Amino acid sequence: MTSRLLPLDLEARRMDLRVVDSLPAKGYRGYVNATGRLRTVSNLYDRTTVFGHVVISPDEAFALTNKSAPHALFELMVISAGATHRPGLHDHSAQFGAAFGVMADAFADHCRAYDLTSVVSWSYDPATVDRESIQGEKRFHAHLVGRTQAERATVAEMAVRAGALSATRSRRIVEEASVLGSLLSADCVDPDALRVLVPVPALSTPTATVTAQFLLPEGWASLTDPGLHADLAYVQRKLRRTYNEIVSTCTTGVTGMWERPVVREFDADDISIPLRPATRATLAHYLRALRPEILTSHREANRSRDTHVYPLADLAYAVTIAEQDGRVYLHLRINLFSDLGGAGISIIDGVVVKTKKGVGILRADEVAARKAFQAEYLGKIHQHPFASRVFFPGI
Question: CA–CA separation, 335 vs 134, rounded Å?
């Protein structure tokens, strides 16, 4: 693989992004981090604290839980809790989407009372099961995190240019595919087809350089608009079509355990998706720079190497909703190599922040503060004007 996957001007933009590597998060005493522990509904009850479990249909439900491996002191998790694994928000009903939107809006309101800044995030990567994935638990799950003023100050103090990091670290935190993804999304997502989301022009802000950035015009309240679930399903369809077209036109081979397609000779004009000439040229540059040094045989996983040179198995992205300059934005970040999803990477005041879990042990008073925050949040949901969407989603 060549060292430069992007044209010089885009690589310079990527290297100028402000990043933090890493913001520490304390963990529970004795907890060992692992993935794939919540495969069944009973696992949720055995391995997490379940605050609520609401059934929408015989095969669809959600649970509100504590996070056993915290990404922050003030945090909860919403997880799909039906019998069948549904990895994406778009794989769920509009009722599920409406309930989730109310929970996220209520969480933002609760955070304001605590003088916290809300960050809501999730990941989509159902196909990667060999190397490290950005979605360790293949059920849809969203992280509801409240960042303290002290954490925001730490981020402002620690932020550096991505170019100050090693090539391995910068690719994990702001990989080249994420820049390409912002350009592809801008060309393929029709703003007129969106009901709630308002696209921010690609490259117009630092965060719009490494994510597909969308304004939520009514702030956190936009999450309660039923049109948002439809918008996210529409964006997913566009991304899926774009990914499939690129793979079918430009690669050969199949995806399997420690097996990935490889880039072949292709004509960029044969890629049948509507792209501006500059985006098409950037895509061609990126793909041709990938050849041919992709791992092709089964072996023991090596996280550092895999996340730098061995791609994820299929379409993968992380979504982060966060405040910036007094507005609320939804950021969709495409992943091809990085193993850092929506929880591993936050966007705090416009800075791309990697979180490192398990740095130190939560004190007893911190555990108590976390429990109080979570308990009070449950009351906030009951007081929300659209609380019925959470507690009676099928009606």
Answer: 8
CB 52 within 8 A of CB 42: no
Residues whose CB is less than 8 angstroms from the CB of residue 263 and which lie 6 or more positions away in sequence, other chains included: 250, 251, 287, 288, 290, 291, 292
Provide the β-strand partners of residue 65: 50, 77
DSSP per residue, 115-170: T-EEEEEEEE--S--SS--S-SS-S-EEEEEEE-HHHHHHHHHH-EEGGGS-HHHH
Count the alpha carbons within 13 Å of 292 in the hemisphere toward its beta carbon.
Answer: 5
Q: Which residue, among 394, 362, 380, has the nearest Cα to 26 in the 3D structure?
A: 362
CB–CB of 354/342 below 8 Å? no
Q: Indicate the residue type of 371.
A: K
Q: pLDDT digit string (tens) for 96-138? A: 999 999 999 999 999 999 999 999 999 999 999 998 999 999 9
Give the whole-angstrom CA distance, residue 236 versus residue 252. Answer: 24
What is the DSSP-derived secondary structure letter of residue 204? Answer: S
Q: Which residues contact 176 (CB under 8 A, 6 or more apart)?
A: 5, 6, 11, 14, 286
Mention every residue, 6+ apart, whose C-beta is less than 8 A from residue 181: 211, 212, 317, 332, 333, 334
Based on the number of CB atoms within 10 Å of its own CB, is 394 exposed (0-12), middle (13-18) or buried (19 or more)?
exposed
Burial readout 237-264 (b: 16 or more C-beta within 10 A, e: otherwise): ebbeebbeebbebbbeeebeebebeebe
* Ranges of H-type helices in the chain: 8-16, 41-47, 94-113, 149-158, 167-173, 176-188, 207-210, 226-250, 277-290, 303-309, 364-383, 388-391
Maximum separation of any 2 CA atoms in the chain, in Å: 61
**Quick one: how far is CA 307 from the chain centroid?**
16
Radius of gyration of the chain (CA): 20
Q: Are 25 and 357 in contact (CB under 8 A)?
A: yes
Q: What is the pLDDT of residues 11-37, one digit of tens each?
A: 999 999 999 999 999 999 987 766 667
Burial of 152 (0-12, 13-18, 19+ CB in 10 A): middle
What are the pLDDT digits (tens) for 333-366? Answer: 999 999 999 989 999 999 999 999 999 999 999 9
